[in-house]
Amino acid sequence: MAVMDDVRTTHPRRYLPAAFGVAFAGLNIVGLAEGADLAPLLAASGFVYLGAAALRRPGTAWPMFWLTFVVIGISKAVGGPDSVWVLLGLAALFAVYGLVRGAARDPGGLPLQAVAMAVVGAAAAVTLVVGGDLGGYLVAAGLLGHAGWDAYHHHTGTVVTRSMTEFCFVLDTLVAISMVVVIVM
Length: 185
Fold this sequence. Notes:
Elements: H1 2-9, H2 16-29, H3 39-55, H4 61-78, H5 83-100, H6 110-130, H7 132-156, H8 162-184
Helix pairs in contact: 2-8, 3-4, 3-5, 3-6, 3-7, 4-5, 5-6, 6-7, 7-8
């Protein structure tokens, strides 16, 4: 029986979230010029966790991710308000919804995710204002911090699905390192 467990955990599908993280990081790295380019990704990282915590369903993390993908894509395609501001507004709406639905009772859920969203959201907003190398370092630090957040949630198995934590960890780490490389070079 132990042999079957080992085979199951090494199945190639097991690595799909990480592979998806590598691919998505590649999409975000192409044409990377400054920190403001990645500010929406930083805001999205907090939004996904907050949204799942507000709904109290870890499985909603992937639909939350796709929502951020659409918001960022539309913002880039048509202009208008920067997607960071849209994501911050949506995060506030989800937080209120979660409060009304009683999600604040779990201190590791909505309250903790709201604090995390405030931190990464503020970092993303400040990046839009300061731009340049400082903004790039701020985004890189925020993404590396969020990678640690992903590792913690993967270990505890709370708030979002493990596949999301794996995907996010790889994405956040690779994009943060790439941002630092762009700044240094």
